[in-house]
């Protein structure tokens, strides 16, 4: 057995933490690198515009005609290019990653990642109201998935690597390694386990290191220093901030879904052109809606925007993002959610300062709370939002009101408006379901390679006593019965041993025959009395969930585990039964 085969077998179980940590670190470097390249691409002169380093503004100082034409033409170009692709290659973003995790064991196609990089970059660069974090998560996850696929790792390991790529992407975009870990576990992996935590942590750190090497160690936002709650009398007002953030998030999710449903039959190029034109029209009067808008977010955090600008930017960005997301432009929603939250928090801070000047905190404090609240409510990721809030501010004083507001916002979305997260809504509209039973969740995290029995022998269904004796020499537990080089059934080895013993005893009692004649006599293993069962085949990369589903569909209770070698031959590695899968689940949940 080769070294890589031994590694694959180890990665299928629980005892490969050190190995997964090394591979996770490599994936973190690749994912962080892909996100850095994407950011450089969208901010370079290679695309439709370049950020002005002197004014530090993106669009506010541009002529109104340029603000109209840039997103309109950009949307048309992106749509024409998307129209040339097959529908399956147009799937990009976080929802695509979630779909591949739920239905394809984390195997992300490289073609979709290239589409995300090129067309997602053009979308952002042409000033559309989308974010770069969603495309970044796709690129990071695809980079890590590519490693797993190239090494032909077990699918349970590839799923963890996708989480590593996601964590590194979040870390690289925001310089928040802890929030990247929590986001990956909360949204992508959807479970918390030590086997996943360690590699994902290392990947997230790797993404942060690369970002700091290229862009410096500063935070993504200009966070103000005045981040202290002024009075406990503000807590009811933070409840109101959470409620408003939840309502805003619900409006965004519901309206985006309506736009998506209305435009479902439209040609792709028409969708993107309408989206771009809409952004351009809104940007004539409210230029802050164009692009990622982090300059406006920073201004809100510093308390530099007047109440009128905050309200206009909030309403304009909400409408523009609903249209862009509903019409399927290849961009993300995390950035716009942060923008909306900052504007909402700024509005609430201004109003609170006017109404309760003796008890209200700094306006930027409310903007920061609003960012985390709306992000957590839109994505249904409260813990990730809280961790991002802590890391971005580096101030534990903000956690107390932040927790209160974030939880209220999530409750408003889920309990009052009965809405799923933004990405779950996208998948539901396509007839896909992210919900997984606890049993399936456990089985999905374990590979067949870590559970299968390798104590087996293979025999042709017509074998001589000598051949059977050689096969039983190592005392296997199972015997795979072959016919024309194909597995036909599974036999318990002890049944074959008992039959051979009874046969020998019977021969001693009967008239003895020449020894050579006895050895040449062929035994039909399909006709002897034994416990035989039909079985299906599962790939060495499969998880216990895949093996269990395959047995269920075929109405069988056993499978043999194989892999196709480089020369096209089928190599058998072991046997797995339904009882082994059940025992593994019970063992994993042993108190």
UniProtKB/TrEMBL annotation:
InterPro entries: CBS_dom, CBS_dom_sf, Cl-channel_core, ClC, ClC-type_chloride_channel. Keywords: CBS domain, Chloride, Chloride channel, Ion channel, Ion transport, Membrane, Transmembrane, Transmembrane helix, Transport. The chain crosses the membrane at residues 12-38, 64-82, 192-215, 235-256, 268-286, 306-327, 334-353, 365-386, 398-417. It is a multi-pass membrane protein. It is found in: Membrane. Gene3D superfamilies: CBS-domain, Clc chloride channel. Residues 530-591 form the CBS domain. PANTHER family: CHLORIDE CHANNEL PROTEIN CLC-E. This is Chloride channel protein. It comes from Kangiella aquimarina.
């Amino acid at each position: 057995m080769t070294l890589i085969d031994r590694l694959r077998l180890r990665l299928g179980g629980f005892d490969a933490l050190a190995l997964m940590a090394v591979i996770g670190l490599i994936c973190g470097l690749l994912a962080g690198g892909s996100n850095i390249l994407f950011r450089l691409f969208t901010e370079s002169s290679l695309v439709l515009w370049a950020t002005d380093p002197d004014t530090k503004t993106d669009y506010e100082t541009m002529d109104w005609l340029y603000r109209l034409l840039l997103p309109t033409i950009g949307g048309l170009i992106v749509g024409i290019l998307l129209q040339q692709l097959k529908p399956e290659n147009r799937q990009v973003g976080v929802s695509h990653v979630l779909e591949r995790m739920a239905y394809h064991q984390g195997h992300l196609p490289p073609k979709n990642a290239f589409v995300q990089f090129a067309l997602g970059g053009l979308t952002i660069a042409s000033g559309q109201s989308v974010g770069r974090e969603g495309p970044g998560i796709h690129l990071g996850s695809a980079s890590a998935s590519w490693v797993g696929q190239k090494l032909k790792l077990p699918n349970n390991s590839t799923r963890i690597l996708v989480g590593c790529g996601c964590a590194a992407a979040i870390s690289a975009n925001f310089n928040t390694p802890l929030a990247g870990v929590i986001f990956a576990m909360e949204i992508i992996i959807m479970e918390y386990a030590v086997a996943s935590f360690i590699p994902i942590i290392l990947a997230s750190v790797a993404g942060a290191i690369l970002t700091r090497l290229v862009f410096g160690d500063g935070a993504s936002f200009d966070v103000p220093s005045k981040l202290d709650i002024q009075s406990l009398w503000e807590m009811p007002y933070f409840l109101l901030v959470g409620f408003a953030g939840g309502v805003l998030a619900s409006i965004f999710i519901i309206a985006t879904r309506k736009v998506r449903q209305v435009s479902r039959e439209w040609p792709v190029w028409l969708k993107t052109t309408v989206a771009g034109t809409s952004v351009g029209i809104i940007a004539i009067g409210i230029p802050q809606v164009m692009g990622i808008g982090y300059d406006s977010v920073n201004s809100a955090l510093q308390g530099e925007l007047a109440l009128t600008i905050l309200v206009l930017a909030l309403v304009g960005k909400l409408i523009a993002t609903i249209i862009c997301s509903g019409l399927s432009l290849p961009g993300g929603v995390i950035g716009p959610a942060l923008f909306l939250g900052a504007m909402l928090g700024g509005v609430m801070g201004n109003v609170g300062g006017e109404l309760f000047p003796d008890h209200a905190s700094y306006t930027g404090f409310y903007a920061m709370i609003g960012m985390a609240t709306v992000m957590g409510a839109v994505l249904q990721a409260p813990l990730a939002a809280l961790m991002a809030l802590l890391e971005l501010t580096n101030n534990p004083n903000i956690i107390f009101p932040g927790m209160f507001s974030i939880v209220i916002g999530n409750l408003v979305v889920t309990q009052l408006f009965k809405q799923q997260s933004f990405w779950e809504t996208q998948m539901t509209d396509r007839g896909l379901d992210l919900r997984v039973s606890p049993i399936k969740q456990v089985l999905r995290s374990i590979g067949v390679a870590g559970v299968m029995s390798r104590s087996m022998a293979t025999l042709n269904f017509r074998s001589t006593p000598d051949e059977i004796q050689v096969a039983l020499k190592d005392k296997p537990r199972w015997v795979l019965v072959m016919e024309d080089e194909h597995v036909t059934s599974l036999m318990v080895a002890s049944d074959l041993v008992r039959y051979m013993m009874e046969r020998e005893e019977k021969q001693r009692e009967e008239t003895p025959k020449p020894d050579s004649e006895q050895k040449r006599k062929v035994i039909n293993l399909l006709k002897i009395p034994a416990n035989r069962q039909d079985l299906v085949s599962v790939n060495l990369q499969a998880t216990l969930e895949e093996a269990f589903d395959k047995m269920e569909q075929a109405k069988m209770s056993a499978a043999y585990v194989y892999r196709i070698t480089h020369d096209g031959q089928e190599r058998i590695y072991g046997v797995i039964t339904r009882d082994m899968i059940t025992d593994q689940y019970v063992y994993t949940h042993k108190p």
